[in-house]
Amino acid sequence: MANVIVIGAQWGDEGKGKITDLLSRSADVVVRYQGGVNAGHTVVVQDQIFKLHLIPSGILYPNTECIIGSGTVVDPKVLLEELDQLKALNISTKNLLISETAHVTMPYHRLIDQASEEFRGDHKIGTTKRGIGPTYADKSERIGIRVVDLMDPTGFREHLRWTIEYKNVILEKLYNLPPLDPEAVIDEYLGYADRLRPHVVDSSMRIYEAVQQRRNILFEGAQGTLLDLDHGTYPYVTSSNPVAGGACVGGGVGPTIIDRVIGVAKAYTTRVGEGPFPAELEGELGKLLCDRGAEFGTTTGRKRRCGWFDAVIGRYAVRINGLDCLAITKLDVLDELDEINVCVAYDLDGDRCLDFPSNARLFARCHPIYKTLPGWKQSTAHCRSLEDLPTQALDYLKFLAELMEVPIAIVSLGANRDQTIIVEDPIHGPKRALLHDTKGQEVGVK
Ligand code: GDP
Ligand code: IMO
Ligand code: MG
Questions:
Q1: Is the CB of 273 under 6 A from ligand 2?
Q2: Residue 173 contacts by C-beta under 8 Å, 6 or more apart in sequence?
Q3: What is the average pLDDT value for the chain, to the nearest integer?
Q4: Distance, CA of 433 to CA of 435 (rounded, Å)
Q5: For residue 91, which of 66, 140, 214, 280 sits 20 to 30 Å off, Cα-Cα?
Q6: What is the pTM of this model?
Q7: pLDDT tens digit string along 245-282?
Q8: Is residue 13 annotated as part of the catalytic site, yes or no?
Q9: Whether the CB of 125 sits within 6 Å of ligand 2
């Protein structure tokens, strides 16, 4: 039995959806523990593409219980659209459970997210405009609506009449927007409540029972370490805690039940929205990575900013999440390159800096110091074992493992499930993976 957390080790979109789907075949329960419909997780099974925002990426397995945990924020309208899409594709959603203590994203959250981004002008965050920040802000301000409130028509009516009166002052007076009609919003959301009611549970209790029954639980993070509210590139972050620690708070479990933490990182880096990105590539090479990697946001369709692999933030992700091992995705995107750079350190005002500076002003002044490695100039999409990889590709991976100081357990070479090399099964295998570093002799030996 192993309870595993899967987190993004960069700025999101690392391929967590693919890796979670892959590992879900060994999981009995998959828990999404934070974030909302800002996330976009793509899972490709043969020729079918599934784009998930809130529903855990384990949903494609008919017997896996999928829980939208307490630390998430639930947009009922988008969730129901997602449920309908899955049903239309003949995917059963009977095992989907929603925490009664998750907070609900309401129409005023979206309006305020959009209006505040506009108001900020040059200081905008570049949010997904899905109302995520304002929903979490209401949670902290203790005026949020929880799923359990939505399930109680009388209490919901009373609560929302007052809340909308308050939010209308902000919409009208601060943002010059028309007010919301409380009764129309209440009726719309009570309609959603009726459809969601059969899925609503005490999620922490369900997870605890699964722990006692020694079932395998997988905690799926959304976003990534550098977007973490406390540990990311603040203020250019999301409003929740994608880091591994967030799984305990957002799932409602104690840290002692966690066996392993897996970090998912692309073989290069991407970022959506504003904020510093030292290893960013703006010219032809950036465009090549964007085109080959199809780097357009799943949620907003925005072009993702692309750059080289950044081992400084990678090491930081290892530290903040206590990573046991890595899944390196999208190695195939680098197939055509003559040379590949890896950011091994930053130049900060003339000093060599090996650690991610938590001071945002210092981080904005960091310039990448690169080590250049030779490319392999051939396709890796067909590789299914380490032995199939060109020597330069294997050396590249070993170099990343050495820099990050954790082993690589999974290598992904395409969006499909089978385009994967499992070096070591992170759920059932021993707590060690074989692709360790350039000095070890263990590579490929099982
Ligand atoms: P997530 O948010 O971390 O789940 O990642 P996204 O789904 O937003 O973005 C990753 C994209 O890359 C998706 O379109 C995946 O289908 C795709 N993808 C995942 N792994 C690989 C890979 O190894 N190679 C390629 N070429 N695409 C991949
Ligand atoms: P997945 O789970 C990449 C970014 C936004 C913005 C910042 C704040 O698919 O990896 P928000 O709407 O959350 O208030 O926006 O966070 N962001 C993501 N970037 N992948 C995501 O999710 C993201 N979710 C939010 O672009 O910079
Ligand atoms: Mg994504």
A1: yes
A2: none
A3: 95
A4: 6
A5: 214
A6: 0.96
A7: 999 999 999 999 999 999 999 999 999 999 999 999 99
A8: yes
A9: yes
